[in-house]
Amino acid sequence: MNTIDTINYDAAPVKAGYTDRILQLDLSSLTISIVEVKPDFRRKYIGGRGYAMKLIWEGTTKETRYDSPENVLVMASGPLCGEPRFPGTGKFVVGTISPLTETFIDSNIGGHFAPLLKMCGFDAMAIYGISKEEVVVIVDGDEGAISIAKAPVYSEEIDQGGLVYGESVLKEFTGGELTENVAAVTTGSGASNARFGIINSLFFDRRRGRIRSKQAGRGGTGTVMRFKGLKAVLVRSSQPRVRANQPVEKNGVRQAGAKLKKVISQHDPKQLRLGAWGTPVLTEYMNNFHILPINNYQYGQHPDAPAVFADVFLDRYFNKAVPDGCYLGCNLACAKGAEDVLLTRGPQAGRRVGIDGPEYETLAAVTCQGIFDPQFIMEYNWYCDDYGLDTISMGVTAAFLMECFQRGYLSMEDTGFDLSWGNIDAADRLLHETARGEGLGKICGQGVYRAKKWVAEQYAARTGVSINETLTELNKFGMEVKGLEFSLYVTKESLAQQGGYGFSLKGPQHDEAWLIFIDQVHNEIPSFEMKAEALNWFPLVRTWFNAVGLCKLPWIDVRHPDAAKTANPSQNQPTLEYYAQYYGATIGTTKTVEDILADSERLHLFQKMINLRQGKGTRAFDQIPLRAMGPVYLSEYLSRQDYYDNWLREHLENEDGFPDSPEARHQTLLRLRQEAYQRLCDVVYEFKGYSPDAVPLPDTLERFDLLDEKAEVLLKAHGLQVPAT
Prior knowledge:
This protein is of the alpha+beta class. It is built from 29 helices and 17 strands.
């Protein structure tokens, strides 16, 4: 490769899960530097999401946008990342100022990249500036060298793709000898044309004999990477993985890992069966409980849904003979993949490819468009990954535009083609136009929040109806909060998940508070108070997983048999004890679950302060679309009239208040749902130590040593009195 700059270095050894070094790259000047981390830094910010937030807080201002040179793209793991003796330790986060939300976003991603980066001597990588030419970065722990090189040029087909380009670069770097000791992060050309670009984490799977991928999907991290001129980062280290994390108490790590692996092997086959089916197993549950998004979340169930249940993918696509997983030592192994799939559509039609997925969210992003075709789902999955597009934001924005077309807000003249529900040709065309930034795809690539304004402008120009009046209607079914598209669960009947989406600091995704299963399927938090308490507790635990470098699925999706004996079975506290044991044994300090919650609450509050600085942190930005609370239109209500009428009878104070007409009952139901959500806001804010406007109180920040001068300015700007010190 054509090297621009190289530095030689001695890799810092990993001690107790940390290297205490951050690799900094300035792409404007094409320079490399290494920063030593002070002990207090890792104590307060732990790793992963915490490191990303701190670096972005210090390196950016309230004026910083995704395309500002000072915006930081951070890739950070944590002290528990990279341990084969414990399940699910390949995770890291990619954090930045989001093109969609214009505030902090981080996306959780798996694979071998972060463990290898740690073995190369770095807890995190922070990328600043914008390069004038496309570059790749190489971190070679074996050679003790870090390089910035001109991005290699191959054929147009390869250069445009995130998956195929990454594989080509890795092969060039290794001379064609791919091993598990090399990994890369890349994104595709579609990320240059859409605000919801992803980053692919590529690793070699020796059992399948090919490069596989996981994705940092949410919020536009890949868009930032492409804008900075960074096409790929490669890492290499040949150190033995089992010695990579250097825990203080190896036996404690081994014992905790053995206990969790035993729970997984004995109980996952009796519960969700993620090891056999992968996350598509959720599809049947979601459909049975009216949670599977159909036609832009209008409906949660469909008679054609069995065509895309997990057994279809298992029988038709997945290789049952090859065990899966996105990092060594994880016996849950839920990362499914398919080999030799023939693409029938798009510019690569006729090519056979390996496909990693689909995950449930990708599958549901297609049913959200009214499509129930497993082959199209597989191709949609592969193209989004190769283009570098978030399957969730792509599908939800497409579904929004489809509904606008159905309701007359968009005409054929606006779209250029028939954008009807279930029209595979239209969905396929919109996907490729979005990747190229052409036609209606140029609008789709902006996401729902910005697409709403464009639709309103088109409709106003055609009809004379005011833009504001049209936006009021579009806001009812434009499924975004804070600028981020909803992940794929219908929340109409789950107040807990409504709050999980609305209160989520980075926008409506399941990463911070996935409560739909325990609320609507298992009915384990039936009372209002239990839902409110869950909305305080679960985000803290889930934030901690993103800080330390762990996958959440072995905890939340495999229930320990002893959890049923506890006061809150859904918290799965017996398994959390294994995580606390693993944490303490790694870093050499005894940690309880309560300690973990406290560490995590500091990070959660810190993220809230970034949102306030960026103008997205108050109650107004926790409000969710009407469709997230109930049936927006009468047709939605009538599709489940008996259910909704029974719900009304239970929630009205007396039978005399039961309205006579379906129209009146529909409106009454919506009013009650909206009132319940506002009451939930009040109670949860109080739980969290916030003001009624969702601003952390001074005492709350002071408890976690976060009440500094910057915080005081923010609190005062929102009308809170800060006591004199």
